Amino acid sequence: MGHHHNPNQPFSIPQIRFIPEWLKPWLLIVFIIVFNCTGGVYLAAVSDMVGSTQLLQEDIMMAGHASLVGMALFFAIMFRLKWAVRPKTALGSCILVLIAANLICMHTGSVPVLVGVCLVSGFFRMWAIYECNSTIQLWITPKRDMSVWFCYIYLMVNSTIQLTGIASILFSVWASWHYMYWFIIGALLLIYLIVIVCYKGIRIMPRLPLYGIDWVGMLLWGTTAMSVLFICIYGEYYDWWQSDHIWFATLLAIGSFGMNWWRSTYLRHPYISFGIFKIPIVPICVAIIIVLDLLLAPSHIFEHALMENVLGYDHLNTVTLSWVAIVGTIIGIIFTWQTFARRKWSYQRMLVIAFSCIAFYLAYFYFRIDYNLPKESLYLPVIARSAGYVMVAVMMLTANARLPFPYTFLHGLSFQNMFSAALAAPIGNAIVGRAMKVIMTRNSMLLSERMDGVELSVSYTQLGELYGMVQVQSLLETMKEIYGWLLMLAILCLIGLMLRYSGIRPMRVIEPTYKAIHKLIRRDMKLRFRLRRRSQALQS
């Protein structure tokens, strides 16, 4: 923690020395930005990595999303790790793991090693971020208002994701994608030096041992998530369930999920309790997140294809959309902070506004998509979809804060993040990607049905250009059709949101103090020790 709980005393971070008090929170924010940029693999440079390695694009995507699965698995035990390990030890260990992960990812050609390292690095990256964020929480929101806190979280996360993509592309264009790794490793070494010199090896609260954690459950949940991820990313490559690989991943996902279900029936504290599914907040939030990522799947699949293959822009022009996305994120966060966090607008009103932004994004591309679309005309829809996304993301996490602390909240947070961070986007991309392939094949056949009648006097060069024009036109028609279907889905969601009245507001979303959470977990651990001794006495 490293801060005072008394509101009458000034905010301080006693575990850091040699640095002015006013500078300490800003230093930790710089740490958080660097940790957020440490992703194992950098998906923005996937084309360059595929070109210089023997890996498939699906391999790089699998590794990148495996890092997000590792991050989601961290949330279920974040309080326990906070009180089991000193801040200096935790940060130092996480930094060393992240440096080793970057070195391995930069040089390995083995897919299992790459994916496994990214999975582990995601867990330790989230641990380092949480260690810094929990230290400055009272500096951000002295009242521990989670609606304010999650505005800050998504401002940091989404902005750094875009900045990482910009940096990766610039390094790839100017030099090599390897330089991004060396830059991050250098930044991590600098942070490690600051931690070793400036951090005191003190403990803020009494230690709680890592007793009673369901490590097997953690492994099974990770297996389930990775299996679903494998199906979504490699499905098109292996032709879906025509392949034994996809069938094996499907059976593995069902088996590990069923094993977790069975174990939760007799374990007092499973890694993620299935009791959270009885609380309507959790499935509703997950369903909204999946629908949102399905509506935004064209931003991952179409936008770069449109700019590079149809409009003819290079990487440096394409990267400007990332700067525009950052602007949209900032606008969305400021609006959410002013209306949702401060004025306590209802969830329904905010969801209607957010989905209206998404519907505008889809409608704009549906009606305006064309060969001669100027780059500047893409700015407004990109701002709208970035703002709409962060608005929904902040609301869903804030709704999760209504769950009882600590265990139910942590389990709901971990399960929701497993979808919002790791699984929802690949699920949406898989659905839209499959639809794109089917519709584009049909459009190509319709547009080229008369090409068999082309006279033999036409040269091969002209015939190739003609086929190229057909492919570009079929791509454009396919994009327009999919945008239309998704626009209809967004309008249906808007109608449903407006018809279903809900006056729930983010009023009771104050996180308890760390001292109170510590007492709750310590009381539960004492009870478990008593039960264990009693059972041992009965057995003897």
Description:
About 40% of the residues are buried. With about 550 residues, this protein is an all-alpha fold. It has 21 helices and no strands.
Task: Explain the layout of strands and helices.
Blueprint: H1 24-36, H2 46-52, H3 57-74, H4 78-84, H5 87-107, H6 111-135, H7 137-140, H8 146-174, H9 178-198, H10 215-234, H11 244-264, H12 281-295, H13 297-301, H14 303-310, H15 315-318, H16 320-342, H17 347-368, H18 379-400, H19 407-447, H20 460-499, H21 514-539
Helix pairs in contact: 1-6, 3-6, 3-10, 3-19, 5-6, 5-9, 8-16, 8-18, 10-11, 10-19, 12-18, 12-19, 16-18, 17-18, 17-20, 19-20
Care to give the gist of this entry?
The protein is mainly alpha-helical.
Taking all Cα atoms into account, the compactness measure Rg is 25 Å
Q: What's the count of strands? A: 0
Describe the largest sheet: none
- Topology as H/E string? HHHHHHHHHHHHHHHHHHHHH
Uncertain parts: 1-5
The termini sit apart by 42 Å
The percent of residues in helical segments reads over 70%
What percentage of amino acids are in beta strands? under 5%
Number of helices: 21
**SSE-based structural type:** mainly alpha
Average pLDDT rating: 86
- The 3D shape can be described as globular
